[in-house]
Amino acid sequence: MTWLTYDSDSQREAFRYSTLDGQPLFDIIFCNQTVQVMDISAGGISFKNKSFKVGQVDRILLPIPLFLSPTPGKVSSHPGSSFSEPVNTAASEKKSTASDEDSPRSQPMEQILGLTLNIRIIQISKNDICHAIFEGITDEAADILHQFVLERQKQDIRNRRIV
Description:
Blueprint: E1 26-30, E2 33-40, E3 44-48, E4 57-65, E5 81-83, E6 87-90, E7 109-124, E8 129-135, H1 139-162
Antiparallel strand pairs: 1-2, 2-3, 3-8, 4-7, 5-7, 6-7, 7-8
């Protein structure tokens, strides 16, 4: 039997997602300041620095689509992560016009689940991006984030085929 091995200096344990055009994914509040999330994985996130320092810690709220949410009754009570009540949001932020196609009623709604996690900045890059890890994350929350990353990657692939 032959074993294949792969040696790498990479410390990453999860796939990371960032938009194809390099635009922020969404905003979060970190240490009472709104910051733009540049990428996300089940291990952590990166966001634009606003004079933060390595080692700073905060509890943040991530907006996760409900179809990726945990099964009711299986939410962990672990102090590192928690889930808030779903909130309805318009999936598209198009301005409404007189036509039915663009009216708010015709736009699909998606429910967003707030995933609350503790993060700690472990590095600030030369281009002023904070790299933070999730601390005390439950297996369930990590699974939700893995699924979120996978779904976004699949959407990007589908969108590339359309163009």
